Amino acid sequence: MICKQYVTTTNNEYRFDNPILQVETTTRIEFSVVAKNDVHIALSSSPEVMTPMYEIVIGGWKNTKSVIRRCAQCDIEKEHKETGILSVDEFTKFWISFVNGSIRVGLVGSDLFMEWNDSNPLPVKYVGFSTWHGIEGTFQFCQ
Fold it and tell me: Average pLDDT for residues 57-71, to the nearest whole number?
């Protein structure tokens, strides 16, 4: 298994530079992350932030809730409240699946904790990742 590690900066910008995350033929990703809060994942049809796209926020609002949106920083489609889902001391491993507008998010080894079905599905070909609000994160993706 080949793993790559990436550190996100504190400038609220998505990174689309991981070739593992060009998802022409996959419908699920797994990743591990160390961050205080505000892990963001973009599911997009091109390697950039665009409207529309899916945005998943894990441990937002000071690590108290996670959400799914249909564009960056727009209205919340689905919300899950759970304090402390992220850790600054160790990697937490997540999975995200995206099939025909069904967006599902869970912890690896556990059931899903958040799901939303888009009645007007968007194509997903690229996955971007980021941290927000001045938070640095370390992501690990394995193939």
Answer: 97
Give dist(CA 89, CA 15) in Å, integer: 23
Block residue for tokens 């689309």: 16
Nearby residues of 24 by Cβ (< 8 Å), 6 or more positions away: 125
- Look at residue 38 in the predicted model and tell me its pLDDT: 96
Burial 37-72 (b: 16+ CB within 10 A, else e): bbbbbbbbeebebeeebbbbbbbbeebebbbbbbbb
Strand order in the sheet with 137-142: 3-8, 137-142, 28-34, 92-99, 102-107, 112-117
Contact criterion met (CB below 8 Å) for 122 and 55: no
Distance CA 121, CA 130 (A): 23
Residue boundaries of the structural domains of the chain: 3-142
| Tens-place pLDDT, residues 84-128 | 999 999 999 999 999 999 999 999 998 899 999 999 999 998 899
Supply the CATH classification number for the domain 3-142. 2.60.120.560
Q: Is 22 helix (H, G, I), strand (E, B) or coil?
A: strand
